[in-house]
Amino acid sequence: MNARVVADRYEMASLIGQGGMGQVWTAYDQRLGRRVAVKLLRPDRMAAETAAEDMRRRFVRECRVTAQVDHPGLVTVHDAGSDGDELYLVMQYVEGTDLAAHLTEHAPYPWQWAASVAAQLCAALAAVHAVPIVHRDLKPRNVMVKPDGTVLVLDLGVASVIDTDTTRLTHTGSVIGSPAYMAPEQVMGGAVGPYTDLYALGVVLHELLSGSVPFPGTTALGVLHRHLYEPPVPVRRIRPDIPEALEALVLRLLAKDPQHRPAGAQEVYEALAPLLPTRGVIGAPGSTGAGGSLGPARPFLRPLAPWPDRATAPPPAPVPPRPEHVPARRPDIAAAVDEAKRLLGEGSITQAVDILGGILPAAAAEHGERSPVVRILRKQYATTLMDDGQYRRALPELRRLADDRAAEAGPGDPQTLQYGYDAAQCLEQLGEAHAALNKYRSLLSFYESAAQPGADQSRVFDIRHRIGNLLLAVGDHSGAHQQLRHLLYDAERAYGPYHPLPVELRRGLDRRQQFRGTTRGR
Fold this sequence. Notes:
six-stranded antiparallel β-sheet, alpha+beta, three-stranded antiparallel β-sheet, 3 domains, 9 strands
């Protein structure tokens, strides 16, 4: 029997993992002659209500964004696409075992081991969140332990494609996602952010230290209820040998309110650093601070430590001075724009971003910062950055566009509002829930006071929906419930009860009502 070949390139060898949504195979890359791991996913099993073609586009986009992250704590993505009815993701093949299997052999971990694993996960998450990407499904099964003790994170970006409503109950009563590791805001269907991954990290760390997740249960609904309403058992009650500082960190990570968790993976790493095993002091100048230098001793002093300055977009490379006798070549802005359009048409978004970002300074120097040419270029640049998932770089461009437009046409101008809406989306994607919430509320006041509110009804409903989800993310459950209940009433009046928006709102409200019912029954 001939082995299956995916995408006319990857020859399937042996099945190494299988779940309800797909399979993982070892395979051989026939073109480069190397062993790889191939994950096959079935869109019809992941989200029956989502069109397969839309799922494929989202899948490839998420894989492209994921490929931007270069970190030794992440599995390298080689390729992605679709083959027949399946999506495929080709990854680096890693020798080792997943963290769940490793924990089974060593449960509970020595606390030094647990701190070491968590620190390595923090390093990877810091790089991921800087893009920004939210993993959404961090758990021991998605972590590999290599024979040398290094830890790798798997399935980056895949969870966000599988289903945006990860707590949806299927017709069999099971939950899409991993209930044991879900943060409260994720359980309630609220906006997710880096704080969501930090909660999952707290669950993993608790499990490594105690041998059990903090909220076990016999049913998915029961587990999700405990995430929402029950405090975790402090790990020192189970193992008194654990340092108080480590217990306190776990409890902070498992805070119900995202605002009470650590500010980021970098902060968690710094809290873990004093608890990590050491091999003594290396007498080398520099590279000892949190930011560190590029000294070669840094990997030994701070192994895999995240770089705090990576949270912002790197500054553009300096342009070397041109000798005075060599005349400066005038850039061909029109040709660069045409090339960017061609690349966008081919789906080569990253290359288009580089061209647009490179031509903007030259265009501003030639035409002036406030010229129509520069504004059109900046708008295209910001839009393309958002399409490429580079929200951190898109945000200042959008703010600049919004400020310039507001100065000319006023804060209620439709284009000003559109720039503001895009900026709010960037804030939401970056996990800055409070800032996004304030921006959406400011925008809503303009849209609702418009002379013709009916023209922007869908936008008003969208913003109100996002505000409700962000209220869940910041822990204001009663405010979110009121916001979403009023939105459901208005959406049913506008669209009827069977429109997708009322259906989605009703499903979320019913799910949250289930949790309240479970609370009363306990």
